[in-house]
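Repro:
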Amino acid sequence: EILMKRFGGNKNENTIVSNNAAAAPYAAPSMNYIPTHQRKMASEKAMEGYIKEDHQYARKSGGHERAREYRRTDGLTFCPVAHLITSPAAATAVDDSTSTSSNNLEDVEFLLALDPSVRVLHSYYLADALGVESSMVYEDPAAEFLGIYGSDVILKDIDWLSGEEPTLDQVKHILESHLPSSLVDNEHACLLHQYALNKATGRSIRGTTKVYIRPHVSTFYRSKFPSHSVAAFGKPAAKVGPAPLSFTGFATKFINLSTQPVKLYWDAGRISSGPREGQMHTVLIGTVQSMESIGTASHPGHQFFVAKTYDKDNVLDRYTATADEQVWYYDPLEDLSLEKRVEEMDKMTKDKKWTAKQRFGREAWMVNQSFSRDYLVKTRMIWLANFPQPYHDGSNTALEKVSNHMWPAEYIGQVHTFDTNHLYFTDLPQELESLTKQDYEPDMESQRLSAMEQFQSTSLKGETDSDNNKSMSLNVKVVSCAPRVVEVKKFLSPVEVQHLINLAYGETGNVPMELSRVSASPNGGKRMRGDAMAEVRSSKGGWIHREQDVVVDTIFRRVADLLNIDERLMRDHYTPEDLVGDVELPPTHDRVVEAMQLLRYDPGDGYTAHHDFTFPSFGSRYQPRRFASVLLYLTGEGDVVENGVRSKSSGINDDKALEGGDTTFPRAITTENHDGIKIKPQSGKAVMFYNVLPDGNMDDLSQHAGEKVEKGVKYLANIFVWDPIIN
């Protein structure tokens, strides 16, 4: 149908007739400047990508359902409300839905320069329509023909309309002449319609999205400030402010806009003593590839510099961290005027001094920087994510189907309940074997789960349930609203706790425990080494995969219930057909959870304040990030681990009993605590916090630390859950 429409479906193949009588037919100029044989060849390649089910491209669009349904541009609005309203009742509904939501989201209007914003956003919409990674479209025949990066036939057709008074229907027809109508997004059409209307004057593109407005601290306390429980967000009746924080750290982000990789260093000043006294002490944060980013935790006054990868002394630029300047751009063209900058970029393209991908990356970062200003004005928070991002509106909408659930945290002490049919293990099978992919086939899985029931109970002590319940309810208690932190006591049974400890330390131990490492970013950032790493983190750790055995598998299933997601998202998604030939499967086929990280902290060990989130590549359509962190405490205050066996201390002066090792959130907002909040270790307890805000931004307040262990040994397990796919 598409081929006929474009190449011979009408008497005049260069004419597209509108169904709207008010819209005059027009000729699509793109048909005139592409030779017929090239058009047909390119179009056939393009159609092959999303029509042939056995084509490799189609398999790359597969994976789990969340990845298939995900659209990075969801949440953006470029259509005037009038385009969406068909009746007075609908007008009221639209007005009600765009004010605030259950996740404290409010509309924000943003203005973006016509050039390059339209090219960048247009490419994001096309990548969503084709179902490919933004970085993948450079090699994809469909995207190559559409000219996302280069001679864009769609925008050239829109340019032809700019001299008239183009209608939205005409713009839609242009899109439908290049894409199947099912892939044409209404907001995409409105974006291009604004482009057609504003191109002659150069007026900015106007759009809206939703951003998170942090509630006032007085709304966090129902009992202390009862009158505020129904107060409007951010508008409390009394002036009860947050307690000033003694901790002043924050996240920083560095973006490299040069065509070559650079290295980012922390300049820690001169060494005051020892054999290197007087020398400069510098710490490598990481190598930052062209048009990519890296991040690290910092404090006001910290000094950073960037240098060429091969010469640390060749300093390219310097930066000073402040609470108002958390995001830095290294831009070799920064000192040029806008006009000269465009000339230089055109010259670099002509001389092939950078790739089309690099130029697009620069333009994408410029759009991100522009949006961040509007975001700051509206929210008073720094935009640390990459624009655009879908938001979590807290309702049962299409957006929520492709994003993870977030427990509401309206006030401290708020309690939610979730049910799970993955009961406590109160005894262990005589033999525990690793699970295989075949063990997750429906029949095998059903048999295995039934066989395990004899070892499980709704009671921690294994007492018989007279009602023979197949599920149990667990309470989720809010311990912090900003950041959003919840805890679940008795999440693990004593048998499950001991089993995890045994895997690392005991007669059955088979998980190698090595010195834990620190990585600043997944985008080429190198890990810290030696003393620099030890100053940040000191512990031993190992990794336990879900398939380790049925007990570990059950814990992962229970974590999925806590997160309110389908546990199948925690499995790999591929079929034997996907593995035919030399095919490297994309991350859309991977589970959305990392292996469980088992950690051991000895006396003196700890982990300084840090963030769990990382910064994804600008070119990734999915923008994968650690959505939530789940901490499983295996030992608690007063616990003793001797010869791999956990027990409670028998005496008050027991040097082997655990002291210290609290988990702290030093930037948690309260009315009276200057040090944020502290969570004491308690065996079997789970603590979960979100690394992102409902609007998709990184939550800078999620910075947390593990205080040093004073006595005894602390065991902890981490599970990091990603959204919408894993990096």
